[in-house]
Specification:
The complex is a heterotrimer of chains A (235), B (258) and C (230). Chain A has 235 residues and is of the alpha+beta class. Chain A contains four helices and nine strands. A five-stranded mixed beta sheet of chain A has the order 1-2-3-5-4. In chain A, helix 1 crosses helix 2 and helix 2 runs parallel beside helix 4. A five-stranded mixed beta barrel of chain C has the order 9-10-11-13-12. In chain C, strands 1-3-6-5 form a four-stranded antiparallel beta sheet, with no helix packed on it. In chain C, helix 3 packs antiparallel against helix 4. Chain C is flat and about 65 Å long. The chains are: A alpha+beta (235), B alpha+beta (258), C alpha+beta (230). Chains in contact: A-B, A-C, B-C.
Chain lengths: 235, 258, 230
């Protein structure tokens, strides 16, 4: 019998989302993104001083992402504070997923710091982090050729799905495929996979993921529009 | 003296602050419960002006300390997130976060706000530990008051998780049982000193320009349950007593927000 | 499809395609990618014949030659002062540029500007992102005394100053405060009356928030009139 999602969603259906921009007054840019029960808060500080000096790039600014889960955000035991191998890897792939759209050429020698905290997690955390970070970078006015939008696709038993939640992710023998895209240029800036998948299913998942990202991007833009306004402005 | 301090003092001499508040006025305070309802056993968000702090509670089963076999415990941890202010850097706990953690801990522990004996499941074998983690999301001032208030609010929001048949914690299910909390609620209020002036709830600028601070944690009946003086300048004994009176008075207002 | 996809003063977001084809020319934060002109920031479109520009609503301050900024002295060396101008790198105020009076070598530079002092300066040269030279010689430049200092978004400074200083002038007139607004988003103000100072701050914050919405000048004027009525 075909697998049916626990929460009754269609295979291509995303969990309810909400996004707000400018949630952290101290930051140069910030955003909160929630998808299902996963809540990510991103703050951008920069361009600013980068120490130690050997990390500085004389040609352009450096992007530095820091992903962290709050101790009470996990679905089980308390998460020990401090960076883990997982959080360090996620910080790295966040940087790689955002850099392709950013123009840091005017900030040579300095750093743009992006901090993301997870307040509550139910899978799809790195994707939520990237989606929030992208809005925060736009809010900070860091020049970019597009927003980056991310979603975790996957397979549970025999079904290809988008926006995998924790229960689905915990299924044995499944596939978890976080991906991020720059929608305008149809480019993929993040792709990871956990599990065993045939290439035909991969192709299908990428298509499904793209459709999902279109929906998520609208949420990002709506949040930015809510803060900055829309339409024509007479001055 | 720096130009900013000079100007602030000038304004203080006229009985005002930069934002027009009086010395005894708090900015807008709000407390929200259940900000991480699915993951945390209890959680809360406190805003004081632009300062925003979240706190969450996780419960764990553990063996008690040998000298207190019939008591559970609490652990308080404040982490100064770099997300909340440009001055915080990622890394191991700074001395500021350690001081905050310990002061918030003392305020809750000494007055036995949580009844440790009621956290005992089996004496000498199994007790509950209440783990409180506090995170600022935006810092505009100091954090002593907001962190302490968030911790207490999170404790009030907490429900015991379910225990399965094997006696292990099942975090996916909460019970409706709240934590064993005392009726008297510890609330911290910090009084700042600049020159000869005593005031509460500084914003970031006032806090950086201030000379000294006294955090006072008090209970509903006016009894004190924790004190912490900070800053490089001293208080006279009279100033201490004045500060304590002010703090106890303001704590009553803060308590109403819970 | 060729042509302009937006109107003057539309608000656009990063990635928005504002024009297609080769008929229009990009400028500043509008860039050409292949066949399209794309906005790289959140801002207002500003059209000038075939040139499409962006008035950004957000973004860091980028030091530019001839800009007047307000910096804070962070250190004093043998040959001048180093100032924080809200840029990742400190800017240089050399001995010779410190003041219109002649400053002797080996004199005590803190007599002129001490650490923590705010100084209104002009950026004379931006050799690279790391090397920025300043001058405090010239009309209106020099030390800013006792006052309050706060920060606004650099992108809103033109609005806060107004055409030929008209907006900030309006605030000065109604509050009696001396106000200095740096292109880098640093605002210094000082008045005799803290209530009036506070009013000036609120007016400036109002412009910062609502600067891109029409009718601002009237709103600010009404606000100031209402608040200063006794």
């Amino acid at each position: 019998m075909a697998y049916k999602r626990e929460d009754g969603r269609k295979n291509t259906e995303l969990r309810p989302m909400s996004a707000q921009v400018g949630v952290i007054p101290n930051a140069d840019g910030s955003a909160r993104f929630q998808i299902g029960h996963t809540i990510a808060i991103a703050a951008v500080y920069g361009p600013r001083e980068l120490h130690p000096q050997f990390l500085q790039d004389p040609m352009k600014g450096v992007l530095r992402c820091n992903y962290n889960m709050m101790a009470f955000s996990g679905s089980g035991d308390r998460v020990r504070p401090g960076p883990s191998r997982r959080s360090k890897e996620i910080s790295l792939i966040m940087e790689k997923s955002l850099l392709p759209v950013l123009d840091l050429s005017k900030y040579a020698g300095s750093v743009v710091d992006v901090f993301v905290e997870l307040l509550q997690t139910d899978a799809g955390t790195r994707c939520a982090a990237i989606t929030a970070a992208s809005m925060a970078l736009a809010d900070a006015g860091i020049p970019m050729k597009d927003l980056v939008t991310a979603v975790a696709c996957g397979r549970v038993e025999d079904q290809l799905i988008v926006d995998v939640d924790y229960l689905e992710d915990s299924h044995e023998g499944g596939v978890d495929l976080p991906m991020a895209m720059s929608m305008n240029s149809d480019e993929i800036t993040l792709l990871q996979m956990d599990g065993v998948l045939d290439s035909k299913s991969l192709k299908k998942l990428l298509e499904m993921g793209k459709e999902a990202c279109l929906t998520i991007k609208k949420v990002q833009l709506d949040a930015l529009k809510k803060k900055y306004g829309t339409g024509v402005v007479e001055v | 003296m720096s130009v900013l301090r000079h100007h602030l003092l000038k304004v203080f001499e006229q009985g005002r602050r930069f934002d027009g508040r009086g010395f005894e006025d708090y900015r807008n305070i709000s407390v929200e419960y259940g900000v991480s309802p699915r993951s945390a056993e209890g959680s809360a968000r406190v805003k004081i002006g632009n300062t925003e702090v979240v706190a969450g509670v996780k419960m764990e089963l553990t063996t008690p300390y040998p000298d207190t076999p019939h008591k559970g415990g609490i652990v308080v941890n404040v982490e100064l997130l770099p997300l909340s202010h440009s001055r915080f850097e990622p890394g191991p706990p700074s001395i500021d976060s350690i001081e905050l953690s310990r002061v918030v801990d003392r305020g809750i522990r000494e007055c036995q706000y949580v009844d440790f004996e009621k956290l005992c499941l089996e004496s000498g074998v199994k007790v509950w530990n209440v783990l409180i983690d506090i995170y600022p999301l935006n810092v505009d001032g100091h954090l002593f008051d907001a962190a302490a208030l968030a911790a207490v609010a999170a404790l009030r929001d907490t429900k015991f998780p379910h225990l399965n048949k094997e006696g292990m914690v099942d975090y996916t299910q909460k019970t409706t049982k709240s934590l064993p909390l005392q009726k008297k609620i510890p609330v911290a209020c910090t009084v700042l000193k600049l020159g000869k002036h005593l005031f509460v709830d500084p914003d970031y600028e006032e806090f950086s320009l201030s000379d000294a601070r006294l955090s006072v944690c008090s209970l509903d009946d006016g009894n004190l349950c924790a004190l912490q003086k900070g800053g490089d300048v001293s208080f006279s004994p009279d100033e201490i007593l004045l500060a304590i009176d002010l703090a106890v008075k303001k704590a009553k207002e803060l308590r109403k927000q819970l | 499809m060729s042509g302009l996809l937006v109107e003057d003063r539309n608000i656009v977001f990063p990635g928005d395609i504002v024009a297609q084809g080769m008929d229009y020319l990009p400028s500043g934060d509008i860039v050409r990618i292949g066949d399209s002109l794309i906005s790289t920031k959140i801002g207002l479109i500003s059209l000038n014949n075939r040139i499409v520009k962006l008035i950004p609503l957000t973004g860091p301050y980028l030091p530019k030659r001839h800009d007047t900024v307000i910096g804070c002295v962070v250190s004093i060396g043998m040959s001048g002062w180093r100032l924080d101008i809200r840029w990742p790198f400190e800017a240089n105020l050399g001995l010779a540029e410190g003041s219109s009076e002649f400053i002797q070598r080996n004199s005590d530079l803190s007599r002129y500007y001490g650490v923590g002092d705010y100084v209104r300066v002009e950026i004379t040269n931006v050799a690279s992102s790391r090397i920025i030279d300043l001058s405090a010689k010239g009309p209106g430049l020099g030390k800013l005394g006792s006052g309050r200092v706060f920060f606004v978004k650099a992108t809103r400074v033109p609005r806060i100053i107004g055409k030929q200083g008209s907006m900030v002038g309006l605030i000065k007139e109604h509050t009696g405060c001396r106000i200095s607004v740096g292109q880098n988003g640093v605002v210094w103000l000082s008045g005799e009356d803290p209530v009036k100072e506070e009013l000036a701050v609120r007016a400036i914050r109002m412009i910062e928030r609502e600067g891109h919405i029409s009718g601002l000048t009237d709103r600010v004027q009404e606000f100031l009139k209402k608040e200063t009525k006794i």
